[in-house]
Predict the 3D structure of the following.
Amino acid sequence: MNEPSKGFVIVASKKKFFYLSALNLIESIMDFYPEAKVCLVTEEHFLDDRGRKLADKIILCNDHSRAKIWGMARSPYDLTFYIDADTECEHEDIEKVFDLFNGHDILFTGLPAERHYCYAEVFFPGATKPDGTKAGFELCGGVCLYDMRNELVREFMHDWYDLTVEQYAGRWWPKDENGEEDLKNYPKSFKRWDQFSLWWLTNKEPKFKDLNIGIMEDDARWNYYSKYKSHLQHNKDPIVIRHYSSAGAKKEVY
Amino acid sequence: MEYEILDNAYWEDGIDDRSVVKCIRMHKEPNGGRRKEVAVFSKLLPDRSLCPQYKEVVSKVGTETIDKNTKERRERKETEKKTGHIKQQQKAKAQELERLFTLKLRAFEIPEIRDSERKKLRTKLRRSQNEIEMNAWATLILGLESGVLKDSEHE
């Protein structure tokens, strides 16, 4: 049996900031893992010789807000590690990321209670557990490790994108018992958040109930937000991917 | 006037001789409502006689309870001070990291640095831990690429 291909998917759309961040991210991965294969998904008007030189494969996308998921669904690699563009690789363990599947089909990083201070909204009524326990988002989509050899995984990625497009366009939202948009259980503030479509597919869509979706081991080191409080020691081993999710440049220069 | 003294009275901060007590008195208003009054009483009045209001608070709440409240309050304030300091430090650190990241992206847009093939130096610039270090590596790349500095040793 052939060895599965392994590679990274990085999506840079909408703003030049993301393209420049993506180039920096690719170089930072290659600092530690020179043989890394990277698929860069970007808009044609951003692409330049640097991107062409660094990327193993380039896929052109449009400027949809969630080109990210579109790109994830088109990974050319069997084992894929998607990474948000506004991040940087800091550790040689990046090469070992493909060893983390441990029987899972898709792995994300988590949103445990001790890190809730870093996120805007986590809990919502529609996620309440059958025993009445307050619940909400549990997965964070900043990075994602997935096995594209599994047909259901590919279908999941495509469905996630399709559902998000419908959601953003205002054509899809869960309905209440009267057939109206259920804004009581699913707040309006989630309407332009792919985190919600991800939650819906992983919790409410029977088609994907057999997918083995999990959280990466020592997950904080694989998607370490710069806003994390280091004294709380969310990570056990050194940080591999640092996430600059609120870099001012997004709003300013680029 | 009718009022109730809450049992969370404590000795005033910075005074350890139980000479000043601080308490909350809840007054019953004629309309049925309640009004909160924060009151501070010194043990002695200007004529050196015992303040009756001080005496009232101490006798109602008890010296032992006031001591306990004072200890708990001082510990809580100390913890809040430390936590607040850590929070501020963390926030500043996060902001500095975000700013450094943005500056690095800008540095990599300078044509000489953008087009430089000096991988080791590019890596050094990327891994800079602060603005000064980043500027130093950026300057070095610029100097070498523009020919101002001589590349005596190939990377």
About this structure: Chain A has a mean pLDDT of 93. Chain A has one domain: 6-247. The longest helix of chain A spans residues 151-168. Chain A touches chain B at residues 17, 20-21, 23-24, 27-28, 31, 50, 88, 226-227, 229-231, 242, 244, 246-249, 252-254 (CB under 8 Å).
